[in-house]
Structure formats: structure tokens, C-alpha cells
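Look over this today:
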Amino acid sequence: MEQPSSFFMRLAHSQWSVPLLFVTIWLVGSAVMARAGGWRSLGQRFSTAAKPEGQSFRFVSGSSGLVHLPIRYRNCLHIVIGGNGLYAAVMFPFNFQCPALLVPWSAIESIIEKQGFFNRTVTFHISGLWPVITLSGSIGQLAKAAYEQSRGPQ
């Protein structure tokens, strides 16, 4: 039987050590970000396999997690604004442990809109869950309008 230390020494000197280390760090980092951003919590309740009909946007910036400590996804979200709700998916290769979500409009408790220094953001608070979803720019505005339309006249 081979000594464990000699196995790791051979692995460290092999041609696969750097790619293996990179993939391992990437997957662990993605899993930590998915948990810290609340994406896994959202996925337990709103996970979906099918992309809904509606206005589709790729390379959208947004965030998830705590309001004051979000995990930002810059230009790597796929958003669909449909009649059923808000679809959000993290694009490959950043989507490890981040299932695609379909949050129904009825599950959104409130919306907060803020004007930042360079752009406007819309934050969706989901009833019964701690993570929020924030969308930047015109996509956030469109999602807010669809949410308000789903609620009907007030």
C-alpha cells in the first residue's frame, strides 16, 4: 500500500495539480457564495426547471442576500419577467449550487427602489425568507412595473 503523503506529493508534481486546484477553489467559492447570498434558501422554495414565457434578458446585473451585505452578480444573471413571476438564473460557469428560480409575484412582500450614484436599483423582499433579490437599471424597473401590474389597481 502506498503512503498517503507520497500520493499527495505525486499529485502536487503532476500536470493536473493546478487545474484540479483551480476547479476545487471555484466550486467551493461558488457554493459559499450561493449559501451566503441566500440563493440556496430561495432555491428550496422557488426552484424551477422550466424557463417561463415573458421578456427575457441576459447579462443582467443584480444581487441576492442580505440588504446591506449582498452577493453581487455582475452581468451574469438571466432574467425573465413574465406574468407568473420573476425568473432568475445565474449563468454558467457561476451557477454551481444556484438553481434557477421562479418567484411568483404573490410571494413578493414589498419592493424598495433606490437611486444610487450611477444607477437605480429595485429590491424585492420575499415573504417568509431572509434573502432579497436586487436588480439594477432598466430591468429592475420593468420587473417592478410587472409586479405592480400583477397586483392590479390599488
